[in-house]
From TrEMBL:
<dbReference type="InterPro" id="IPR036766">
    <property type="entry name" value="Fe_traffick_prot_YggX_sf"/>
</dbReference>
<dbReference type="InterPro" id="IPR007457">
    <property type="entry name" value="Fe_traffick_prot_YggX"/>
</dbReference>
<keyword id="KW-0408">Iron</keyword>
<comment type="function">
    <text>Could be a mediator in iron transactions between iron acquisition and iron-requiring processes, such as synthesis and/or repair of Fe-S clusters in biosynthetic enzymes.</text>
</comment>
<protein>
    <recommendedName>
        <fullName>Probable Fe(2+)-trafficking protein</fullName>
    </recommendedName>
</protein>
<comment type="similarity">
    <text>Belongs to the Fe(2+)-trafficking protein family.</text>
</comment>
<dbReference type="Pfam" id="PF04362">
    <property type="entry name" value="Iron_traffic"/>
</dbReference>
Length: 95
């Protein structure tokens, strides 16, 4: 019988620079998805998904367009690394 190990469900989040609950599974079925699962907390990822949705809607992006995909990937990395990412009009980050 396996015992529950809370440490296995935590990750040192690159955005928040602290140990937080990790994503239950990689967000993409590739090495990038595994990297994100191992370096980004569920909290940071959920906030990214919210921001990504706003960016796609506000900029009327089509995610079949390779330039739109590239833009979103660049913004994702900036957001997760606390860089200067694009913010939708009226966007206020959560505390």
């Amino acid at each position: 019988m396996q015992t529950f190990n809370p440490a296995e469900h935590m990750v040192f989040c690159r955005k928040y620079q602290q140990n937080l609950p990790k994503l239950p599974k990689p967000p993409f079925p590739n090495a990038k998805g595994e990297e994100i699962q191992n370096t980004v907390s569920k909290k940071a990822w959920d906030e990214w998904i919210e921001l990504q949705t706003m960016l796609i809607n506000e900029k009327h992006l089509s995610m079949v367009d390779k330039d739109a995909k590239k833009f979103i990937a660049e913004q994702r990395e900036l957001f997760l690394d606390n860089g200067d990412y694009e913010r939708p009009a009226g966007f206020k980050p959560k505390d």
